[in-house]
Amino acid sequence: MVDRGTNPGAGSEPCGGHGSPSANDPTFDRCFERHFDDLVRSLTAITGDRERAVDCVQEAFVRAFRRWNRIKRYDHPVIWIRRVAINIDHDLRRSETRRRRREDNDHRRADIDHETPDGAEKAAAHLDLVDLFKRLTPQQRAVAALFYVEDISVAEIAASLDLSAGAVKFHLHQARSSLKSILEAAPEVTPRV
């Protein structure tokens, strides 16, 4: 079950408050101002696409606003918002995969010959962090992004991704190993955020 931000110490700085909801709820505004950029930064590392990350985080905040009367009572509403943003990305990814499969099947039926990318990567002097993270599995990418980009603890990552702390540590170890191999294969690569 997803930790909805009710555990003390399970998320970053609280942004909730108590009182009646309104269109100009100051607790929502504070939460948005305090966490939006950090959430976009970590979701960018997870998704590999800043525009997509902004869309996911914005939609998560829209959903939070609709439920703010309840969510603002959580000790750490940002955990709920982060989880929703990640879920939105997962939903979009699944939808895109289904759409691509349908298109591929349609093209095969029509006997259209499509070229597929050969996987060869361009040599570049610099790869940014997002490009490096794109080479990780989705789970490794999510854990590494939250750990290195958003700088949150293993416990917070576990709560955000609905994983055990041990699973987070495993995926973080796997991500580090993969990144090490990638960087050793291209010693001239200088990661940047």
Give an overview of the whole structure.
The protein has a single domain, classed as Up-down Bundle (Butyryl-CoA Dehydrogenase, subunit A, domain 3). It is globular. Helix 4 (about 75-110) packs across helix 7 (about 155-160) and helix 6 (about 140-150) packs across helix 8. It has about 190 residues and is mostly helical. It is about 65% helix and about 0% strand. Residues about 1-15 and about 110-125 have low confidence and may be disordered.
Summarize the structure.
The protein is mainly alpha-helical and 193 residues long. The chain has helices at 26-47, 50-66, 68-71, 77-109, 129-133, 138-149, 154-161, 165-185.
Question: Helices and strands in order, then pairings?
Answer:
Blueprint: H1 26-47, H2 50-66, H3 68-71, H4 77-109, H5 129-133, H6 138-149, H7 154-161, H8 165-185
Number of helices: 8
Structural class determined from secondary elements: mainly alpha
Oligomeric category: single chain
* Range of strand content: under 5%
At CATH's second level, what is the architecture? Up-down Bundle
Please bin the fraction of helical residues: 55-70%
Number of strands: 0
- The shape, in one word, is globular
Report Rg: 19 Å
By CATH reckoning, the class would read Mainly Alpha
Distance between the termini: 32 Å
Unreliable parts: 1-13, 109-127
Which whole number gives the mean pLDDT? Answer: 77
SSE series:
HHHHHHHH
The CATH superfamily turns out to be PhyR, sigma-like (SL) domain
Number of domains: 1
The CATH topology comes to: Butyryl-CoA Dehydrogenase, subunit A, domain 3
The biggest sheet, with number of strands, parallel, antiparallel or mixed sense and barrel status, is: none
